[in-house]
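User: Some background: our group keeps a shared notebook of sequences we're curious about, and every so often someone picks one and asks for a predicted structure to add to the entry. Today it's my turn. The entry only has the sequence so far, pasted here. Could you supply the structure so I can complete it?
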Amino acid sequence: MSKIIVVYYSFEGNTKSIAAFLAKDLNADILEIKPIKELKSKGFGKYFWGGTQVIMGIKPELKPLSKNLDEYDTILVGTPIWAGTYAPPIKTLLEENYIEGKKVAYFYCHQGGPGKAVDKAKSVIEKKNTFIGAKDFLKPKKNIESSSKEAKLWAERIIKD
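Assistant: Of course. Here's the predicted structure to add to the notebook entry:
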């Protein structure tokens, strides 16, 4: 049996809720990553500063991980969508060799504009890992029941394949 972990970054709790569903459904470990310097803005400011980080290609330094990702065979990576792509802490996770030689699935939460989230993540993941699937969740905290069902079905499908 494959050892599985759900690794995620969540700014407002949407991705955190999906990560919790997935970890429960898969009986997997869970790990929330945090940048050393967290974005504090709310309202319009969060869009401005978050989007600026994405456009500038910022890869924030992460707080030390509490779990060793080398111990896992399968990693599900979750992120909110910022400016059409994954959030900067996930950029650090995916692009700075935290994950190598694993089966990796990607999930993302958005409010209606996922942009090229899957294409970009897939191309980065496939450089050093096997990409096993992706799933989007539209407004998960507003659609909690349907989001939890979608998470369960997706989790079963990607692990079975």
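Suggested note for the entry: The radius of gyration is 15 Å. The mean pLDDT is 87.
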